[in-house]
Amino acid sequence: MGSGRATVWSEAEAPKYGLQCPKKALETSQILEAINRCNSTGGPTGTHWVLDPVDGTLGFVRGDQYAVALALIEDGKVVLGVLGCPNYPMKKELSNYNHQHGQTIPKTPPSSDIWKKGCVIYARRGSGRAWMQPLIQGDTQFEWPNSATLVQASPVDDPSLATFCEPVEKTNSNHLFTAGLANSMGLKNQPMRVHSMVKYAAIARGNAEVFIKFARSGYKEKIWDHAAGVVIVEEAGGVVTDAGVCPLDFSRGLYLEGLDRGIIACSGPILHDKIIGACLHQTMSGQAYSEKDVDGAADTTNK
Ligand SMILES: Nc1ncnc2c1ncn2[C@@H]1O[C@H](COP(=O)(O)O)[C@@H](OP(=O)(O)O)[C@H]1O
Ligand SMILES: [Mg+2]
After folding, report:
1. Most buried of 68, 103, 134, 174, CB within 10 angstroms?
2. 263 three-class SS
3. Is the CB of 2 under 6 A from ligand 1?
């Protein structure tokens, strides 16, 4: 299951990850057959891997943030999430440096020796822990924990100190509505606009406190754009719901069916309560939340 693109993983890399290399190299037809087996449509029962091989395509083509996202869903619940973030630095201060300079990655790193580019962040449901480690470089053998470190969502619960992140593209989320929310909550920092599920990674490792995505009405969120990120944020201590305070429902097929307006991911319950309150207030006071409501630009296509 995935977003329709396929990556062919190099068999030669297998031993690096403690896996057995196939005795004979796979032929193209065998690889295509394996890819064709990826035809699950999800649902409430069974076990499914959910893969987004390039999440944040625009970020990828721009040389900015993107993620390779993998999640395991068992009977409709996400039990495992892994985010490979090739342009997201291990060092927290470097991610902050990027944000302060209005870009998600610096084009010129401050110093190449401290610039360990790229990380993998992952969590298992119920473990209460989320891990981060550098991408395996060169000939390094993968031997867990291989410099993996625990990450935790930020303890900040004062909105005036919190940073919120959102999609870069205003076609993907209503920036006007989120600016209104941020304002009514007293969020003072500039929004951190980041492509892809790296936004969930930023919450889980404490670079930002709030992630809000309010897509146009008619747009249906895909499970592969959120599954890995949600479990990672939750295990790192964060809270993720829709605007109606319901958990995201991964049991209803390829889409997050029944999603109430938008997605709100926070570093903790206090900020989450505040943003839900602000959201209610904003909706009651008639502020439109979807771009369609704002400018009539209905777009019901599901890319
Ligand atoms: N009109 C739209 N509204 C909301 N999300 C959209 C959208 N069109 C595409 N997307 C989804 O938003 C994802 C990117 O998220 P973000 O905007 O947070 O970077 C895309 O993932 P892909 O890039 O994997 O296709 C895509 O699935
Ligand atoms: Mg995606």
Report:
1. 174
2. strand
3. no
Judgement on whether residues 274 and 179 belong to the same structural domain of the protein? yes
Q: In this structure, are 125 and 228 located in the same domain?
A: no
Please tell me the distance between residue 56's alpha carbon and the centre of ligand 1 in angstroms. Answer: 7
Reply yes or no: is the peptide bond before residue 167 cis, omega within 30 of 0. Answer: no
Of the three residues 94, 129, 151, the one that is the final residue of a domain is: 151
The vertex-172 CA angle with 170 and 173, nearest 5°, equals: 65
Give me the chain's average pLDDT, please: 85
Give the mean pLDDT of 249-276: 97
State the closest ligand 1 atom to the C-alpha of 52, by its place in the atom list counted from 1. 24
Q: What's the domain count of the chain?
A: 2
Domain boundary among 100, 135, 151: 151
Ligand 1 atom closest to the CA of 169, numbered from 1: 17
**Would the pTM of this model clear 0.90, i.e. be above it?**
no
Atom of ligand 1 at shortest range from CA of 199 = 18
Roughly what angle, to the nearest 10 degrees, separates helices 175-185 and 269-284?
120
Residue 20 maps to a domain = no
CATH of the domain at 235: 3.40.190.80
Q: Which residue type occupies 279?
A: C
| Number of helices (H), then strands (E), in the chain | 8, 11
Ligand closest to Cα of 57 equals 1
Q: What is the pLDDT of residue 10?
A: 63
Cβ of 184 below 6 Å from ligand 1:
no
Query: What is the chain's Cα-based Rg?
Result: 19
Q: Is 225 annotated as a binding residue?
A: yes
Are 80 and 172 members of one domain? no
The reply to whether 52 sits in an annotated binding site is: yes
For ligand 1, whether the C-beta of 171 sits within 6 Å is: yes
Q: 134 and 78: one domain?
A: yes
Q: What is the pLDDT of residue 70?
A: 97
Distance of alpha carbon 200 from alpha carbon 206, whole angstroms: 10
State mean pLDDT over 86-98: 72
ipTM value for the complex: 0.97
For the stretch 96-155, pLDDT in tens is 555 555 555 444 455 544 445 799 999 999 999 999 998 877 667 777 777 899 999 999
Range of the domain at 80: 41-151
